[in-house]
Amino acid sequence: MANKFSLGANTVEDVTFLKVGGVIDEDNTLARSLKKIDGRTVVIDLSGVERINSCGVRDWVNWLNDLDAKGKRVVLVRCSPCIVNQVNLVNNFVGRGKVKSFFAPYFCPRCDVEQLKLLQVEDFAGMERPRAPEVRGDGCQQARCEMEFDDLEAAYFAFLPRNTGQVVDAGLKTLLDDLSPPIRERIKRLDSVQPSAEPDKTPISGMYSPLTVTRTNISISRGGPPSEAPPAEEKTETVRTRGSLGVVLTAAALALVGGLIAYVVFVIGGK
């Protein structure tokens, strides 16, 4: 079961560090958190976000617009897979914010192990077609680790050209260079922490289904109704349900026709 929405804030110098977790839905407290954000620069850790629905997407986009209107500079770090999904689906999901790092799903078929790996956006600079880097599984003792990227590269990394293009994001570099050395070091430490293995947590494949990310032209306007497309896995389930119902109805119709034929044959034969 997913955790409820949570948001923690801590301001150091002129930088506010936010930790967002759980489910971003209609019960979020994003709007109320504005008064907690004192720093001009806002670093948002999204590693704990497990799911976001259409109402949450609308509130998130409006919240980022409010931060921008207040002159805040937003940096998104440690984006969870469901956040990457929305960045790819909704054109203005990050607003004028900068994505610095994100998690990517990996899987080892030999060990049957799923893991998330933290990747830096700047490492993809200059790639015409971003490719998942080779990584080693945590605790892997094999001479050759068989950890593989567990999604479609073209779909999962579709958001990267908007952030890097063929060069390092100059805006993000300038923003970070404006910060004091202690703050830059703090962000560097934060942005190097891999997720801990928690066996009671929902498996990666359960909270994010590969092959569901597709690039669209969806945009959420400020204050507008949610227009998020339903996740592909929900569509698939609907199709399966409808297909099953169709089979049942067809079988019932055939049984009815068969009964009528048998009745007619019986009546004629009786005569």
Q: What does this molecule look like?
A:
By secondary structure, this protein is of the alpha/beta class. The protein folds into 2 domains: 6-228, STAS domain (Transcription Regulator spoIIAA), CATH 3.30.750.24; 230-271. It has helices spanning 54-69, 81-89, 153-156, 160-163, 170-177, 181-190, 204-207, 232-270, and strands at residues 6-12, 15-24, 41-52, 73-77, 98-99, 101-108, 113-120, 148-149. The strands form 2 sheets. Strands 1-2-3-4-5 form a 5-stranded mixed beta sheet, sandwiched between helices. The longest helix is centred in the C-terminal third of the chain and has 39 residues, at 232-270. It is extended, with a radius of gyration of 24 Å. Mean pLDDT is 78; it is low at 197-217 and 225-245.
Q: What is the strand and helix layout of this fold?
A:
Blueprint: E1 6-12, E2 15-24, E3 41-52, H1 54-69, E4 73-77, H2 81-89, E5 98-99, E6 101-108, E7 113-120, E8 148-149, H3 153-156, H4 160-163, H5 170-177, H6 181-190, H7 204-207, H8 232-270
Parallel strand pairs: 2-3, 3-4, 4-5
Antiparallel strand pairs: 1-2, 6-7, 6-8
Summarize this structure briefly:
The chain contains 8 helices and 8 strands. It has 271 residues and is α/β, with parallel strands linked by helices.
The name of the CATH superfamily of the largest domain reads STAS domain
The ordered H/E elements are: EEEHEHEEEEHHHHHH
Q: Measure the end-to-end span.
A: 66 Å
For this structure, what is the CATH class of the largest domain? Answer: Alpha Beta
Question: What fold name stands as the CATH topology of the largest domain?
Answer: Transcription Regulator spoIIAA
- Quickly give the structural class: alpha/beta
User: Rounded to an integer, what's the Rg over CA atoms?
Assistant: 24 Å
- What percent strand? 15-25%
**Order of strands in the sheet with most strands:** 1-2-3-4-5
Number of strands: 8
Which blocks of ≥5 consecutive residues have pLDDT under 50? 197-217, 225-245
Q: What percent of the residues sit in helical stretches (DSSP H or I)?
A: 25-40%
The tally of helices reads 8
What integer is the average pLDDT? Answer: 78
Number of folding domains?
2
Q: Per the principal axes of the C-alpha atoms, what is the gross shape? A: extended
| Main sheet: strands, sense, barrel | 5 strands, mixed
